[in-house]
Amino acid sequence: MTDRGKWHERLKVTLWTLIVPPILWAGHFLFSYLWAAISCAKAGAFMTFPIVFVAGTLLALALIGLSGWIAWRQGGTPGSSAPHEDGTDIDRLRFIAKSTLLLAGLSFVGVLFTVLPVIFLRDCM
Amino acid sequence: MRRAWLCTPLLLATGGCNATQSTLDVFGAEAREIRHIAMILTVGAIVILAIVVALYVRAVRAPEGRLSHEAGMRMVLWVGAIGPAVILAALLVYALPAMRPRPTSPVDMVIRVEGEQFWWRVAYVPPGATPMLSANEVRVPVGRTVAFELTAQDVLHSFWIPGLAGKMDMIPGRTNRLVVRAEKAGRYRGVCAEFCGLSHALMAFDVIAMPADAFDAWLARDSVSIARSAGRGAALFDAQGCGGCHAIRGTSHVATIGPDLSHFGERLTVGAGILPPSVEATAAFIRAPQATKPGVRMPAYPQLSDADARMIATYLKGLR
Amino acid sequence: MSLHDQDDPAVRAAQEERLRKVWTPPKGLFLRWTDVNNNRVGVWYTLTAFCFMLFAGVLALIIRTQLAVPDNDLIGANTFNQLFTLHGSMMMFLFAVPMFEAVSIILLPQLLGARDLPFPRLSAFGYWSFLLGGVFVGGSIFFNAAPDGGWFMYPPLTTRTDLSGLGADIWMLGLSFIEVSSVAAAVELIVGVLKCRPPGMRLNLMPLYAWYILVVAVMILFAFPPLIAGDILFEMERLLNWPFFDATRGGDPLLWQHLFWIFGHPEVYIIFLPSIALFAMLVPTFSRRHLLGYPWIVLAAVGTAFLSFGLWVHHMFTTGLPKISLAFFSAASEAVAIPTGVQIFVFIATLWAGRVTWSTPLLYATGSLAIFVIGGLTGVMVAVAPFDWQAHDSYFIVAHLHYVLIGGTLMPLFAGLYYYWPLVTGKKLSDRLGRIAFWLLFIGANIAFFPMHLSGLMGMPRRVFTYPAELGLGGMNMASTIGAYLFAAGVAVICVDLCLSPHRAKSPRNPWDAGTLEWLAHPDDEDWGIRSVPLIESRYPIWDQKDFVAKVDEGRFFLADAEEGRRETIVTTVLDARPLAVIRLGEPSVKPMLTAIALGGVFILTTYHLYWAALACGVATLACALWWLWTGTAEIPEKPSKPIGHGIVLPLYIAGPAAPGWWAMFITMMADATAFSGLIFGYFFFWTRHAEFPPMAMADGPGIAWPMIALALGLASWLLTVSARQVHARGAVGLARVALMIGILASVAGIGAGLAGPWESGMDPQTHSYPAIVWTLVVWTTAHAGVAAIMQGYVLARSIAGRMDPQHDADLRNITVYMHFFALTVLVTYATIGLFPEVA
């Protein structure tokens, strides 16, 4: 597209943007696990109000939401009706945008699932 | 009642129902809770399976174009993605709190169990008292919280009493805790659940859940000194060097390489849950342990006559 | 050339003659095995994996016979333990993963309208490695020397040389060898999917099979290396007595379990997703419509790939880790069911929307889906940690995993077998025998494995060679055994069907009337793969593009000729498949086979502690590899470019990020970096396990000075190589050569400085896990410095020999990729061992 678009439109989706949401999930998951494992192994407990964890989770959710939103905006270009499966630039863009959006959804749910253990099991038993 | 209900389909299918080593036939609080979870999971799984099969059959039979692109996508979104996500989230909310172990207090009984190829070293550690050593048999008081401290010396093992609680691995260099509470007296069975070598299949133990006061009495027995009769069996035991590995309290034998034999006579099985507690089986095991338990560390005593082996076995059976 | 140039049959016949000549397979008793064409290597690969499956299946029948009745003494504990270990190991490493690679090697070029995969010789190398390693591991059972520690090989049982014999080494080294070939295949498949698609086949038009293969190959890249790292530690302990898993010397058996399952759980999806990929090909064919929800499938594949790396601890729910850690993995294990559900409903929706034509492949697909759903639901059950505490290591898990693997791998492969047999042989299999086999398999699987859910819950542990009659498990076990034999009968019927195939008549072309590119294959197959490389405008070009088949056959698309007498295929861009270049493919050669044999020698001789012979084989491997690269890669073409038709002229040489070779190096180094991160994980894992790490007695570790010198030398070598590439591209060849020469010196000096750290500090790796892991990291990094020196020397030699110049610098660009990763390795290693003790 042209340079005149908004910043989120200039940021073209590619094969790499496709894996941004799941990488965010993976980063959050690894962070959660290592944080719990290391604090349990080295300190024997972790903080009762885990501020770092809450901040990390909100950041991960925000970034996943943002990548999903960008994808949704880019995939929402007007044009022919579904299914978009032609060999055109716009349909390829729509496809990656749609896939990214779906992955953002899954990653969002994945991060929420990762939060549940911290809510229900707060210590190192 | 509950058991009979559970067993009916099994009986029909198999002609047998095992009452001593089954997660369905519970005698502990932990196992009961898990069985409850299992029931809910099973019913849920059957319902979901039925729905998927019904939709598949419907899909295959539907004429072309019965489902539009948009309707199909809606089905994938709601039935394939959002539905499962909600169900699984609910499942987690329900199941995660169940992972919490039962709280313990310093006055709770601790039982240390170590797995060895292919038997169990057991030590009862009542709060504030000296440990009482035993082997291949675990006794638990009904209605009291008991903490097992589990480890291993040689290789990995796993401590599993299906009727009491879930299993817990025994790992060299680590000590794992498993907190349980028995709810029903009786005789049960535990097994090794982590592959540990040749005779992994032959590494079991008896579990006896006793009323709490009977358990206390049983545990207190050793505090009065035990008088051990000396006889031909005891002499043979000495002469053959059995004391090089085995301990018998009240005698000069204190070795800890092999299982403690102090109360061998009251054991319900021989050879870590695999042989009947008879003099014949014990004698045969003494002469050729490898025959019934491949890979066992105990050396064979082929030079020992059958009669002598029986003498030793009789002596051991008398240790109560 | 335009569309009409191909109107003249004589022109076409001449082109066909040239193509046929170029693609003629080598003949002769020995030479035929030097072929590298994907349609031969793929078939050998598939047949070999199939034979290993039959072999492992027979082992399972012996297991089931032993367990048919309680207290059975048909076979002893020793034999039984070898049987179940080998059954699991072979099904996983010698059947499921190689089978997917084998099938992909056959199908992928067809699906992508390519003449062959980008590195045909690499496929051949992978095959010979697989055959050699597989026969070595599988054959050990005939010498009573098979591994007997379970397919998971948990130490200390398997690392203590007094408790386990040669079998453990055979497992570890034999399968490491196969892991190498799996990673090689993954490189091949990723580059194939990304770079060798036909013009116009944008990412959104790619056949779903290719999507799945891409995802799975990337998973292999990240899943296998941790196991390779584990294998290294494992063999260090067995052969050199370095105590990584020995608790008495600061090791921990759980480190192996982490590394094994970081591999082991993605592995399940590595073998499951390709089978779903087969569904994604045949469901549209038999619904007579496009697959509904293409992005959803991509979501599911990519989502599953990621989530599957967050599940490994659910194999360790009973190891006593903190409950909070278990809970994270429980949550992720539930989450992975979501993309799996999506895939199933995409198929259901497609069948619903389309017109279903019933057929044998669809019957298999339906049956396997039913079995898989049951396995998936029990998977959700065991992901609930408390339930798993009971089910873990019981027959419930045996039931669960067999439902998943039979429904998710084996039966879909049989569906694929019935579907794609005409593609490979030009003949259909019998529908009647296929149906008989299906019902035997379906009923057999359920009779064999359903009762195991109950026997597990009734207290039957796994891996027991017998069980007492009093437990009342006899009836269920007898049922399982009967079911296993029924299942085996089904497999036997399929084998009969396959054996009858040569006597049957050819089927018509595209017998299922499918819409995807691979069905261009003609029953009277030519070896050139595809007559002309088509322009793709649809996901189902045979259905949607006008006169598509005729145009391809008449050579009206691209690259319809082989004027220069070379094997060629088109390289395109990753996103939109715009043509970039024509690359020359490797021709039949004995080099891949020799390299595989030499490398096999390294692994096999090490098993028997013949270290000098193994070292000689190592040198031979290096020599073969260099010879192969020198003569077969980055060749400067006789002319800069060639026309491929329709007025398009493409270069014949390509270097840098657009080139397949660059991608191959990049991907290989991703795997290498992952293995390295496994070792680094080991270092920090030990740190969490010990209150004092490094232990007090060796608090200084390797010191700071030597590691920092080694770091400086490594980074210097990297900078020199990067500058050499820069100045070389600007034409300063002499300067580049000097930079490379100094780079070699820096690399070699880096080896000495790296080893000097732990050596000068007198760290004895046999005393404790700390010196052992430090030595391991140093050896890993200095070995990489050695490889860096060899690569720099190789490029220098290429330049001096005139095989590389500023316009043709692929070699230099490729080793620069290596050097980037090398710099990272050097940085992490020396910072960790030199500086971390200061802050810990």
From TrEMBL, chain A:
This is Transmembrane protein. The chain crosses the membrane at residues 15-36, 48-72, 101-121. Keywords: Membrane, Transmembrane, Transmembrane helix. It comes from Sphingobium cupriresistens.
Automatic annotation (TrEMBL), chain B:
The chain crosses the membrane at residues 35-56, 76-96. Residues 106-221 form the Cytochrome oxidase subunit II copper A binding domain. It comes from the Bacteria. It is a multi-pass membrane protein. One of its GO terms (molecular function) is oxidoreductase activity. It catalyses: 4 Fe(II)-[cytochrome c] + O2 + 8 H(+)(in) = 4 Fe(III)-[cytochrome c] + 2 H2O + 4 H(+)(out). Pfam families: COX2, Cytochrom_C. One of its GO terms (biological process) is ATP synthesis coupled electron transport. Residues 228-320 form the Cytochrome c domain. Residues 1-19 form the signal peptide. The keyword Electron transport applies. One of its GO terms (cellular component) is membrane. It is found in: Membrane. Keywords: Copper, Electron transport, Heme, Iron, Membrane, Metal-binding, Oxidoreductase, Respiratory chain, Signal, Transmembrane, Transmembrane helix, Transport. Its main location: membrane. PANTHER family: CYTOCHROME C OXIDASE SUBUNIT 2 (PTHR22888:SF9), CYTOCHROME C OXIDASE, SUBUNIT II (PTHR22888). Subunits I and II form the functional core of the enzyme complex. Electrons originating in cytochrome c are transferred via heme a and Cu(A) to the binuclear center formed by heme a3 and Cu(B). Belongs to the cytochrome c oxidase subunit 2 family. NCBIfam families: CoxB. This is Cytochrome aa3 subunit 2. It comes from Sphingobium cupriresistens. The lineage of its organism: Bacteria, Pseudomonadati, Pseudomonadota, Alphaproteobacteria, Sphingomonadales.
UniProtKB/TrEMBL annotation, chain C:
GO terms for biological process: electron transport coupled proton transport; oxidative phosphorylation; respiratory electron transport chain. It catalyses: 4 Fe(II)-[cytochrome c] + O2 + 8 H(+)(in) = 4 Fe(III)-[cytochrome c] + 2 H2O + 4 H(+)(out). PROSITE patterns: COX1, COX1_CUB. GO terms for cellular component: plasma membrane. Pathway: Energy metabolism; oxidative phosphorylation. GO terms for molecular function: cytochrome-c oxidase activity; heme binding; metal ion binding; oxidoreductase activity. The keyword Membrane applies. It holds the Pfam family COX1. SUPFAM superfamilies: Cytochrome c oxidase subunit I-like, Cytochrome c oxidase subunit III-like. The keyword Transmembrane helix applies. Gene3D superfamilies: Cytochrome c oxidase, subunit III, four-helix bundle (1.20.120.80), Cytochrome c oxidase-like, subunit I domain (1.20.210.10). Its EC number is 7.1.1.9. The chain crosses the membrane at residues 42-63, 90-112, 124-146, 170-194, 206-228, 259-282, 294-314, 326-350, 362-385, 397-421, 433-458, 478-500, 611-630, 704-722, 734-753, 773-796, 817-836. It is found in: Cell membrane. Coiled coil: none annotated. Its main location: membrane. It is a multi-pass membrane protein. InterPro entries: Cyt_c_oxase-like_su1_dom, Cyt_c_oxase-like_su1_sf, Cyt_C_Oxase_1, Cyt_c_Oxase_su1_BS, Cyt_c_oxidase_su1_bac, Cyt_c_oxidase_su3-like_sf, Cyt_c_oxidase_su3_a-hlx. Keywords: Cell membrane, Copper, Electron transport, Heme, Iron, Membrane, Metal-binding, Oxidoreductase, Respiratory chain, Translocase, Transmembrane, Transmembrane helix, Transport. Residues 17-519 form the Cytochrome oxidase subunit I profile domain. It is an enzyme of class 7 (translocase). Belongs to the heme-copper respiratory oxidase family. This is cytochrome-c oxidase. The gene is ctaD.
